[in-house]
Amino acid sequence: MFGPTAALLLIGITVNSTTWKLAHGFFFRVRDTRHSWKTTCVSWIEVLLQSSIAPIAWLFVVFFDGGYYRCYRSHEFCLTSDAILCKNETVWNSYATSTSFNKISENGKYCSPCICSPNPTDASFLEAESQIYAWALLIVTGVGAFLVITCHRMCDKYTLVQRQYVETYKNVETQKFDAVAKEHASQLAEHNARAFFGQKDWTKRDWDWVSGIPEVNNPLFARLRLIAAEKTQQTMYTPLQLWNDNKGYRIPQPDLQLTQIMVDETKED
User: Fold this and answer.
1) Could you tell me if 54 and 13 are in contact, meaning their C-beta atoms sit under 8 angstroms apart?
2) Contact 6, 14 (CB under 8 A)
3) Total domains present in the chain
4) Which parts form a coiled-coil structure per UniProt (predicted)?
């Protein structure tokens, strides 16, 4: 019952984007840009609450089905002295010779055949009790979620319409940022590729350079990155860009030029 619950909770935490916004680059953040402890704690609470939806749904299904709970509790109704199945000597002797019998029955305290197939009355009772727990879990979770959401919104400094606008802006900002980043990366990658293939010939060192893996612990690229940083103060992302900068090429800034032209035209108007 609880193994999949823990697995679903872990998966929910892993796929949550806020988890990696908090964790990624945590030890190398500039001091002024680090999250406060209050923000960090609130964000982790939100991650845990959001990741708990799937585990709670799983528990509700498990308890509502009743099979797992019946298996978990059936030994309490299967004492060897009371179970009908173990009063049959033939059945008792067949199970007593089994290797796993002592482990399942705890040295004969419980009737192992009864644990697998309990009395219908006892099975119905356990399934009904399991369903009660399922509905109780659903009601408690629903009431708790309602109270948390209500308190959160009552403490919000924004009104409902303003909060909706803020959330809309966040979504649009993310989309626009991704689009502009993709466009800028495309221009940068095209410039680096043209700079490499624009040469008349290539040396073995050139091919080795652009074929490397930019690992943090790679001594070669760590040294080249330092050389390039001293020359241009550029942030190096890949071996090709590092090669391009080390060769003396400059990365154009079309967006900055376009911005300057627009500023000049505005001044003329």
Assistant:
1) no
2) no
3) 1
4) none
